[in-house]
Design brief:
Elements lengths: L1 E5 L4 H12 L6 E5 L8 E4 L2 E4 L3 H6 L4 E4 L3 H13 L3 E4 L11 E2 L2 H4 L9 E3 L3 H17 L1 E10 L6 H11 L30 H13 L6 E8 L6 E9 L5 H9 L4 E3 L11 H4 L5 E8 L6 E8 L3 H17 L5
Parallel strand pairs: 1-2, 1-5, 5-6, 6-8, 7-8, 9-10, 12-13
Antiparallel strand pairs: 3-4, 9-11, 11-14, 13-14
Amino acid sequence: MKVAVVGATGLVGTMMLKVLAERNFPLTELIPVASEKSVGKKIIFKGKEYSVFSMQQAIDAKPDIALFSAGGNTSLEWAPKFAEVGTYVIDNSSAWRMHPDKKLVVPEVNANVITKNDHIIANPNCSTIQMVIVLNPLHKKYKIKRVVVSTYQSVTGTGVKAVQQLENERKNIVGEMAYKYPIDKNCIPQIDVFLENGYTKEEMKMVDETKKIMQDNGIQLTSTCVRIPVMGGHSESINIEFANDFDLNEVRTILSQTAGVILKDDIANFIYPMPLDADGKDEVFVGRIRRDESQANTLNLWIVADNLRKGAATNAVQIAEYLIKEKIVA
């Protein structure tokens, strides 16, 4: 089982390697891949040293699976070349997510859509992944009509440069800026570029990807995405209108029994999800579950997940595990 990690030296690529090791993924050969300037550099995986490959060297090695986290343009250019030699590509960029012929997968929700013909599989946006894991079981039970979501997203979602900006600002160091504005002691209500409709690309990703993953274009969703000075994970405030009424205790039971979800909902003891809880974890944490008293059949809840893990690396590795389990990759 040859596995390539494309973008192995980046934040998500490094996390992919960590998750592969932690989950004892059954690889027999690791092929770390990065940009030309990184070729030949060394990385450590499970105590063993590996040299970084170029893209073409990795393709020539014909890996069984390639985990991509190297940006959209790189994925558009190189993922098809890996697929041509029989590799199953799991891509973390936005390049293939809304392509009509490519599957967009959160294993707990829709892994069953993957077939042997799917040589390029898209990993959803981090903020979408954590949301649909919670929405899906509730949709099955009560049928979702509309979702209003506001996100509070970690700087790690932007990358190393943003983490460095935050750390520099906290130390009063003047350095390179990942954002147009300071992020420490601030919130920036813009993630990705603005589109003609006034929403950002990140906000519309949540709208479009949710419908595709949950296979229901009837779900109405609106989103506001905000960057905050946090490093542990993304938080989301979600308001869900259902077609049918619900019982709060039943909602809690459903979520507590959902794979990949941990319920933290005990306000009497001040227990609710925070990025500190999610940091380094693979689960989605949910709490502050309460009825919206302004409208019928409507629920409020709060969710948090580590965006580098379940929001990116872990979800990709879980897709790879599914490929092996179902003998899609032999």
